[in-house]
Amino acid sequence: LALKDDGVVLGWGQNWYGETTTPHGLENVKAIAAGDGFSMAIKQDGTVVAWGRDMYGQTLIPDGLANVKAISAGRNHSLALQENGTIEAWGTSWRCLTAVPRGLVNAIAISAGGDHSLALTQNGQVFAWGDGQNGQLEVPEGLGDVVMVAAGGCHSLALKSDGTVKAWGNNIFGQTSVPSGLGRIKAIAAGEDHSLALAEDGTVHAWGRHDKGQIDVPPGLRGVKAISAGAFF
């Protein structure tokens, strides 16, 4: 997906479920998110539009959802963060994916993973819910001062204010074994089984599964200002 300056969304690639067929008349979009076979967009008026695969209701926007400032699309579920810091979740209810934890208030960031979700609150606390079979919900004790979170297939990442990265969950491919010597990190992203980190000097670091070349960062790549990880890319 791509969001143009004029608020128009373009999609390309696999279109088995209509995920790249932008709804007719969709305009004035300010943010987008791509999930597993479905797509989401926030309009300037704070409402959400979703299209594509809907096997689990992941594109059925909750009635009355408004004032949304951030969205995230997972494998079979969707998240929306409202201006007042509350979170709405919909789609599959497997492993309580749509049951936002009680006490989760003043959220400032969200991330939908394969079958789990992460949220970051204003005071730097991380909440996790959904499937925890691989330890992806086991937020490290004492973890604080977090400024960004990223949920992968079965693992979780957190970026602290000091530029260090914490990771937990499934590590079968080394996706939670954060390399040493990363330097100060300013952004993170999590794929199905790999992890990415963007350093303040504009370089990209990657670790975890590499059977599809997903951690083969192009030699000499510099000047990067944003990163995003797909399932296997």
From TrEMBL:
PROSITE patterns linked to this entry: RCC1_2, RCC1_3
Protein name: Uncharacterized protein
Organism expressing this protein natively: Trieres chinensis (Marine centric diatom)
InterPro entries the UniProt entry points to: RCC1/BLIP-II, Reg_chr_condens, Ub-ligase/GTPase-reg
GO CC annotations on file: cytoplasm
Cross-referenced PANTHER family: SECRETION-REGULATING GUANINE NUCLEOTIDE EXCHANGE FACTOR, UBIQUITIN-PROTEIN LIGASE E3A-RELATED
Keyword Repeat assigned: yes
Xref: SUPFAM superfamilies: RCC1/BLIP-II (SSF50985)
Keyword presence, Repeat: yes
Pfam family, one: RCC1_2
